[in-house]
Amino acid sequence: MERYNFKRVEEEWQKKWESSKEFSTKVDRTKKKFYCLEMFPYPSGKIHMGHVRNYTIGDVLSRYKSLKGFNVLHPMGWDAFGMPAENAARENNLDPKDWTNSNIKTMKSQLKKLGLSIDWSREISTCSESYYKHQQIFFLELLEKGLVYRKENYVNWDPVDETVLANEQVIDGKGWRSGAIVERKKLSQWFFNISKFSEDLLKGLEELKTWPNKVKVMQKNWIGKSFGSEIDFKVTGDIPVKSIKCFTTRPDTLFGLSFIAISIDHEISKYYINDSGFQKFKEECSKTGTTEEAIAIGEKIGFKTNLTATNPLNLAQKVPVYFANFVLMDYGFGAVFGCPAHDQRDFDFAKKYNLEINTVVKPYDENDNFKVTNEAYPGPGTLINSEFLNGLDAPNESVNETIKILEARNIGKKQTNYRLKDWGVSRQRYWGCPIPVAYDTSGKVYPIPIEKLPVKLPENINLKVKGNPLDHLNDWKEIEIDGKKLIRETDTLDTFVCSSWYYLRFCSPNNHDYGFSKDEIDYWMPVDQYIGGVEHAILHLLYSRFFMRAIDYKNKNFNIQEPFQSLFTQGMVCHETYKDKNNNWLRPDEVEKVNNIVVKKNNPDHEVKVGPSESMSKSKKNVIDPEFIIENYGADSVRLFILSDSPPEKDVQWSEQGMVSSYKFIQKFWILHNEILNVVKKNSSNDKRDENLEKFLNKTIFKISNNLEKFQYNVIVANMYETYNYLVKYIKEEVSVISLKENYIKILICFLPVIPHFANECLKTLGIKKINWPDYEKYLMDDDEVNYVIQVNGKKKGLIKSEKNISQDKLMNLIKNNEKLTRFFKKNEIKKVIFVKNRLINILINE
RNA sequence: GCCCUCGUGGUGAAAUUGGUAGACACAAAGGACUUAAAAUCCUUGCCCUUUUGGGAGUGCCAGUUCGAGUCUGGCCGAGGGCACCA
Question: Which nucleotide shows the minimum CA-to-C1' distance to residue A337?
Answer without folding.
Answer: B86
